[in-house]
Amino acid sequence: MTDRSSKVYRRGMGRRRAFDEDEVVRAAVGLFGGRAYDGVSVDDLVTHLGVHRNSLYKTFGSKRGLYLVALRRHLADDVRPLAEALAAATDATTALRLVTSADLGLLLLAAVERAPADEEVAAEVAAGLAAVDQAIADALGIPTALAAALTAAALGLLLRGDPDGVGTALTQRLDPLD
Fold it and tell me: What's the distance, CA 64 to chain centroid?
């Protein structure tokens, strides 16, 4: 007679994960930040993250589930520290330089690509942008609407890739405002 209870118990416990979830999420931030949500297939995730498809779905539920976890990690690891650094900015030029030098690829792509179609992504993006706007407003003592305009200008430079030195020209124009 076989003891089935031990088999059930082992199945119930499940296998240990063969990957570090934290590393996978950080790698997903880079992948989604470089290629956007629609530019990354599940096969790309499996290949680049080194995670089996079943493990990916078991851990994150779906590609979108992993994307949301990655976006939240990006906000915590990249956007929040930017907001903290902006708190020390003393002029608009410094604030603009901080934003344009930050790693905001995933936030920017999420705002452009996913937020219009996904309310949950839109809420995360709005919260991240609001934190940056508020940090600029507080640091410079300006209205939040003006800070939002500076954030929008900086993100626009990131989106353009600043091929013509627009960022340099803009910061030169902002210097007299400081």
Answer: 14
